[in-house]
Amino acid sequence: MPVTPHGALLVAGTTSDAGKSALVAGLCRSLHRRGISVAPFKAQNMSNNSMVTPDGGEIGRAQAMQAHACGLTPSVDLNPVLLKPGSDRTSQVVVRGRADGQVSALSYRTRTGALKEVVVDALTRLRSRYDVVVCEGAGSPAEINLRATDLANMGLAEAADLPVVVVGDIDRGGVLAHLFGTVAVLSPSDQARIAGFVINKFRGDPALLAPGLDQLRALTGRPTFGVVPWSDRLWLDAEDSLSAVADGVLGRPGPPLGDQWLRVAVVRLPRISNATDAEALACEPGVAVRYVTEPSRLLDADVVLLPGSKATVSDLAWLRDSGLADGVLAHAAAGKPVLGICGGYQMLGRRITDEGVEFTGSVDGLGLLDLEIVFDPEKHLGTPTGTALGEPVTGYEIHHGRVVRSGDPGLVGDEGSDRGNVLGTHWHGLLENDSFRRVLLGRLADLAGRTGFAVAPDTSFAAERTAQLDVLADLVDGHLDIRALDHVISHGPDPDLPVVASGLAESRR
């Protein structure tokens, strides 16, 4: 075996969305394909894309995807601390899969001492069970103002004695400065853990980049383990970021099997959660899925999808203020289909009442479903199974809102709502059920008048997700120095790495 059992690596990034999640997934998949038992780990994630594990807890969606890359069932140990932003200033804290209060950026720092024990315990358990654990950092280790209370970057590397690889996104520009600067601002002891670099999303001639990599090594004493090229095949399971949910077509839709497209508009709510629910639709030939943020984008849509939200009531107010609510109502009045998931489902009802989870009071919903919602202080988590539109389905639930009255037929057994052209459910992941999705697409196309749209008989969402993970592993195997990374995982960084001179590189504790 090329790696020593119980080895580990931390993948840090120069910025958010530098490619940490993808690189961890690719490394995990590569190790798994070589027969090495491997697990992913993210000590602290900040994301409203989450899922429910079979052991009943809530973790970041990216860690569930990385678990799939390893051939593992997701568990709360993979992501022991999850922050779910409900506003620009506050987040819900999820500890070992369960909601544990609200924090601001400042108040959270008072909790990090206790949370570090939770994080280190989870990582210790994983390292005892697997040959390798590939850890993902959060944000950037260069956020030295947060170093004293850091749980996910150099603080984790110090606590668990981890070697670190720093990944930078060259597509943003300035990647060499980002990599150099990330090392230079760290204390000497933190610098000693930085084994080298990976450059991500490269387009162009590698010969033009090579002199820069040589100079980067001369300046830092650290190698670049490889340059991963840009791939337009990678779009599933994107982490929360502006690029992941900006206006634009989701994925790379294949041409329709019939002579018409089915156009789906997903409203990009300010606090959108589980935006990945729409990805299963985007895997279908002839289904064009687009995120929208203003009313004119609804005019040529065949289907409108209201996704989940971490701040349902304030996002409902934004929906009205933006004019999108009128667009959704007009779409439904024309007999065209509207689908709501979780928070979007709650918005479609008649009334939402809350006694302190998001606000205190009651607000009117859009009134498209005969539904009343009350927010419970306790979050409901579940991994239910059932039947929808005559097909067996599974899914997962993450919500405070509880249906207290419904006059509509159920969509999933007695759950959810099916009012003809307006449908809703609390179940995330419902669209990942292939047979259900095919029946639903046929119904949506009929309601939209797209008689020339043909539903593909054999699209497998699970197979498409696995194929993308294999693309990531192929990129890792083809463009990174795997032998060198194996050595870092097993033996740590070169002990003779130099300290990069900087006025900021002082010891900070």
Automatic annotation (TrEMBL):
Entries under Pfam families matching the protein: CbiA (PF01656), GATase_3 (PF07685)
Known pathway: Cofactor biosynthesis; adenosylcobalamin biosynthesis
CDD domains: CobQ_N (cd05389), GATase1_CobQ (cd01750)
Active-site residues annotated for this sequence: 342 (nucleophile), 428
Coiled-coil spans in chain: none
Swiss-Prot/TrEMBL keywords: Cobalamin biosynthesis, Glutamine amidotransferase
Domain CobB/CobQ-like glutamine amidotransferase, chain residue ranges per copy: 263-435
SUPFAM superfamilies: Class I glutamine amidotransferase-like (SSF52317), P-loop containing nucleoside triphosphate hydrolases (SSF52540)
An annotated GO BP: cobalamin biosynthetic process
PANTHER family, per database record: COBYRIC ACID SYNTHASE, DETHIOBIOTIN SYNTHETASE
Function, as annotated: Catalyzes amidations at positions B, D, E, and G on adenosylcobyrinic A,C-diamide. NH(2) groups are provided by glutamine, and one molecule of ATP is hydrogenolyzed for each amidation.
Similarity-based family: Belongs to the CobB/CobQ family. CobQ subfamily.
HAMAP family: CobQ (MF_00028)
Protein name, as recorded: Cobyric acid synthase
Organism: Pseudonocardia oroxyli
